[in-house]
Design goal:
The protein is an alpha+beta fold. The chain contains 4 helices and 12 strands; from the N terminus they run H-H-E-E-E-E-E-E-H-E-E-E-H-E-E-E. Strand 10 and strand 11 form a beta hairpin.
Length: about 240
C-alpha cells in the first residue's frame, strides 16, 4: 500500500523529500478540494488511480503504468540517442514517464505496436523466451518469399527462429500502419515467439526475399488499433495481456 508522499514523488518524477514539501505547503488536495496534509497517508490499491489536485491541476496518481504506442518509422527504441529521434520522447505526457521502459524493441525503419511499462516483472513476463509470447508482423517485400523448409529455418548465425504462422497478404489486407513503398511486389504476415536482433528481416532474407517495410501489429493478445495515429499512445490495463 503506497504512501501519499511516495506515490506523489513517483508521479511527479521528483524525490520523496520534494513531494513532502509540496504536501506540507498545502499544494495537494483531494478531488473534492480538501487539503491532503499527511504525507504518510496510505493509499489503498482499490483507490488507484488516486484523483488529486496539485496546484489546482487534476492528477490521477498511479503506482504502475503500461502504455501501448504506435511507433513511427524514423525513430529508435531508446531512452536517448545522439543521432535519431526516440519513440520514448513521444511519451512525455504519459503516466510515470520517467519510469517507463520498452517491452522489446523495434528498429529505426520499423513501425507499429511498441509496449512500455514501469513494472519490471511485467516486462520480464512478456519478453523472456520461456513464456514464448507471440509477436505478429506485417511486411512489405521486394519479391515473394519461398516456403520455410519442413525441418525449420536456420539463419546465418545458427539461430533457429520459432515461426508459428506465416502466409502471404494482399496490400489491402495489410495493417494501415505498415509503411509500404509503391514498388512492393509482395506482402506477408508472420508470427514468431522470439525477439532476436532483426529477426523478421533476417527470416525473409533467408527465404530469398527482402523486407521493404515492417510493422508489428500485435504482441500477445494486444493488437495495434487501426485508428491509433502514428506516434500516439494509449494506456492499457495489464489484464489485457
Amino acid at each position: 500500500m503506497p504512501r501519499l508522499d511516495a506515490l506523489l514523488a513517483l508521479n511527479l518524477g521528483c524525490s520523496k523529500t520534494k513531494a513532502r514539501e509540496v504536501i506540507d505547503r498545502g499544494r495537494v488536495r483531494d478531488a473534492a478540494g480538501a487539503p491532503l496534509e499527511d504525507p504518510r497517508l496510505d493509499v489503498p490499491g482499490a483507490r488507484l488511480p488516486f484523483a488529486v489536485l496539485v496546484d489546482d491541476e487534476p492528477r490521477a496518481l498511479v503506482a504502475v503504468a503500461h502504455v501501448l504506442q504506435h511507433k513511427p518509422v524514423g525513430c529508435v527504441t531508446a531512452l536517448a540517442d545522439a543521432r535519431h529521434p526516440t519513440a520514448y520522447a513521444l511519451l512525455d505526457e504519459a503516466p510515470l514517464f520517467t519510469e517507463l521502459r520498452a517491452v522489446g524493441r523495434l528498429d529505426l525503419e520499423s513501425s507499429g505496436l511498441l509496449l512500455w511499462t514501469s513494472e519490471g516483472a511485467w516486462l520480464q513476463r512478456l519478453t523472456h523466451p520461456k513464456h514464448a509470447v507471440p509477436r505478429t508482423y506485417h511486411a512489405a517485400l521486394a519479391r515473394p518469399f519461398r516456403a520455410p523448409p519442413a525441418e525449420g529455418l536456420t539463419l546465418e548465425d545458427g539461430h533457429r527462429p520459432i515461426i508459428t504462422a506465416m502466409e502471404p497478404l494482399t496490400r489491402a489486407e495489410a495493417h494501415p500502419a505498415l509503411v509500404a513503398p509503391d514498388d512492393a511486389a509482395s506482402f506477408a504476415t508472420i508470427t514468431i515467439t522470439g525477439g532476436a536482433y532483426h529477426e523478421v528481416r533476417r527470416i525473409f532474407a533467408a527465404l530469398e526475399s527482402h523486407v521493404l517495410g515492417l510493422c508489428r501489429v500485435s504482441f500477445g493478445r494486444l493488437a495495434l488499433p487501426k485508428d491509433l495515429p502514428s506516434g500516439e499512445w494509449r494506456t492499457i490495463d495489464p489484464t489485457e495481456v
